[in-house]
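Collaborator request log, item 7. Partner lab (contact: R.S.) asked for a structural prediction of Transcriptional regulator to inform their binding assays.
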Amino acid sequence: MEEEHPETADDNEIQIIRYLSAHREECIILMEKSAGSCYEHFHEEAAAMMQESFRRYYRKYLGAEPDPELIRILASMRLHGYLELVHGDYTMKERLFLARAIGIHADAGTLSLIQYLKEENDAHH
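Returned to partner:
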């Protein structure tokens, strides 16, 4: 949905942070302590879904398939950021502020990265 309607990104981020904040313990168990359970691959599945989302987004704006390793690393960084917010002893207000600040940083970095990748692609053709 966000891919088709990027204006919803802030609202989506707020909903994600509120949900993760309300379910911190469950999130930590699912992401880090579920070995041996039917959820033991949840972290990898979440990472794979995030990678696919990033891949589609970058492909849309690059007009070509992005480097898979780059996408894996970027998605891992985003997932790690969410886990930092879950682990941290923050108020909801602090979590929302940090999530917004991280999002602004990510947006600016994404725009610059897309421009850089386009220039690199053009230079090699």
